[in-house]
Predict the 3D structure of the following.
Amino acid sequence: QSTWGSGADAGAPTVYIATYWFSKFKALSDPGPISHAEIVCVHGNAEDPRLVARIPLEIYNRLLERFGGDAPLVSVGRCEECTRTAAELAARRREEMRRIGELDSTQITDRESWFIIETTWLSDWHAFTNEGPLPGPIRNDRLVNPKTGEPRPNLVKARHYRGVNGRVWQYFVEQHGGGPALERKTLDIYDNTPIE
């Protein structure tokens, strides 16, 4: 059996193949379809050259014909789209933290209200500000009965929900969507004081 590229024309076109699949090919009689899924970004770029091997296109095509799978990788390097997206997300994280820092308060006036937010969503938002994924829409539907809109029984402040002022609530909704709005005069989800 010839080695990769032995006897191939030095000027022949080359492509890249995932080294983990290459290792399976060398060790197994049936390595399965060629796959790059574990080494490429969502845009199909392999950024880490340590995870690929360069082989002649002719050999890749023979492997593809025999085992099926992904098209060859034609380049390896930094994904400009991923770099741009990461920079935009980092800027968004900084801006959200800055704005919430400006808007947040531990007290409200008599004319203001608290807005209840489900704690798992708040934890997801804090994770987002520390390099995590976007938290998705606010999920207050977990706190209420879907038929009546009334709070579910046995909810505990700080464990199941927290309160934010109206400015923070509005900013979160503008940035992430979701709901429903649970406006209260106190930090108690069961408070029935009328909102004026």
Q: What stands out?
A: The radius of gyration is 27 Å. Helices lie at 19-27, 57-67, 80-103, 119-129, 166-176. The mean pLDDT is 91. DSSP finds five helices and seven strands in the chain.
